[in-house]
UniProtKB/TrEMBL annotation:
<dbReference type="InterPro" id="IPR003594">
    <property type="entry name" value="HATPase_dom"/>
</dbReference>
<dbReference type="GO" id="GO:0005524">
    <property type="term" value="F:ATP binding"/>
</dbReference>
<keyword id="KW-0067">ATP-binding</keyword>
<dbReference type="Pfam" id="PF07228">
    <property type="entry name" value="SpoIIE"/>
</dbReference>
<keyword id="KW-0547">Nucleotide-binding</keyword>
<feature type="domain" description="PPM-type phosphatase">
    <location>
        <begin position="176"/>
        <end position="336"/>
    </location>
</feature>
<dbReference type="Pfam" id="PF13581">
    <property type="entry name" value="HATPase_c_2"/>
</dbReference>
<feature type="domain" description="Histidine kinase/HSP90-like ATPase">
    <location>
        <begin position="14"/>
        <end position="120"/>
    </location>
</feature>
<protein>
    <submittedName>
        <fullName>ATP-binding protein</fullName>
    </submittedName>
</protein>
<dbReference type="InterPro" id="IPR039248">
    <property type="entry name" value="Ptase_RsbX"/>
</dbReference>
<dbReference type="InterPro" id="IPR036890">
    <property type="entry name" value="HATPase_C_sf"/>
</dbReference>
<dbReference type="InterPro" id="IPR001932">
    <property type="entry name" value="PPM-type_phosphatase-like_dom"/>
</dbReference>
<dbReference type="InterPro" id="IPR036457">
    <property type="entry name" value="PPM-type-like_dom_sf"/>
</dbReference>
């Protein structure tokens, strides 16, 4: 681990934890990130530095900027000579702590970063070396008006219960990412799984679809698992890229309707990687994504009188007319919206 741009901070007390976060901010400012992403990375640095103080007394945080053709990123190395981590999987489970703290530190690091690894120390059996990586895509400004609108409607199986479904809508530059997530089963455990997946997707929305699915697979390992479909629109190319694992359904309204590939599996339970398919996309097309709490035997023609309504109105009407009372249900719609 060498590099002229890397920054190392010795950590031995709480003031050093704050200092490590401050030393990161000029590095992150050079990436021109939004405020929430900067705060997420600083939170990770604080968590890793706090763990050094709590468990080892002293160590170092090293920040290493990285770059490739279309991404820049940051590696965070946390090293100490403390007792080490005996059970990594347990240590990154929210609520687990050996130091009497809230125990969400390494779990948060795992969720917020692209990669998280505890590296074996070849020189000693003692100590911990954690490497956490996050990449930041270069943000292009919008080149032309974005012609699509997005709407979603969701509800739990029983009113007042936690919803095991979730949806994602993110827009930036000439791009947008939308998706539907369904935690297995119903109730609080399904909600916990869907929420973990949604947090990861919304924190990494500008990563590749393959990377997002890998991350959700990782953060959902300690949940009952989810199924998920994501669609990315790139309006500079007028394309859609689609990826899905599990039984999230989709329906395309186009002159020649087409189907995307869905792979069987459950994210968090050794799921296969999705098969990503790219198609041209005309703004006059429409797309619906929906969980298995929505009946699949319907046609766009049945709702032709609503295609000029706002996407959110169309999503709520589809949910009202097609949702099954015995399951959580979610509909997400992409259309050109109201004329």
């Amino acid at each position: 681990m060498t590099g002229d741009d890397e920054t190392s901070i010795t950590i031995s007390k709480q003031a050093d934890v704050i200092l490590a976060g401050r030393r990161a901010k000029p590095i992150l400012a050079a990436f021109e990130l939004d405020e929430s992403t900067v705060e997420e990375v600083v939170l990770v640095i604080h968590e890793l530095a706090s763990n050094i103080v709590k468990h080892a007394g002293e160590g170092t945080i090293t920040l290493v900027p990285t770059s490739s053709d279309d991404h820049r990123g940051l590696e965070i190395h946390a090293e100490d000579s403390g007792p080490g981590i005996g059970d990594v999987d347990r240590a990154i489970t929210d609520g687990y702590s050996t130091a009497g703290s809230l125990g969400s530190g390494l779990g948060a690091v795992d969720r917020l970063m692209d990669e998280f690894e505890v590296v074996p120390r070849p020189d000693s059996h003692a100590g911990t070396h954690i490497v956490a990586k996050r990449e930041f895509r270069t943000r292009a400004r919008s080149q032309k008006p974005f012609p699509l609108t997005f709407g979603a409607a969701t509800r739990p199986r029983t009113r007042g219960d936690p919803n095991g479904d979730a949806f994602v809508i993110k827009r930036w530059g000439d791009s947008a990412l939308v998706g539907v997530i369904d935690g297995l089963g119903h109730g609080r455990d399904a909600h916990t799984a869907a929420a973990a997946a949604k947090r990861y997707v919304t924190s990494h929305f500008d990563q590749s679809l393959t990377a997002i699915f890998r991350g959700v697979e990782r953060v959902c390992t300690r949940t009952r698992g989810v199924v998920m479909a994501l669609a990315r629109f790139d309006w500079s190319q007028e394309t859609i890229s689609y990826a899905s694992v599990g039984n999230i359904s989709h329906k395309v309204d186009a002159p020649v309707p087409f189907q995307f590939v869905t792979r069987r599996g459950v994210l968090g339970n050794d799921a296969p990687e999705p098969l990503i398919k790219e198609n041209e996309w005309d703004p006059e097309y429409a797309l619906a994504l929906y969980s298995d709490g929505v009946r699949s035997l319907w046609k766009w023609d049945e709702f032709v009188h609503l295609v000029d309504e706002p996407s959110s109105t169309l999503a709520h009407r589809l949910l009202a007319e097609l949702a099954d009372e015995n399951d959580d249900a979610t509909v997400l719609v992409v259309t050109r919206g109201s004329r």
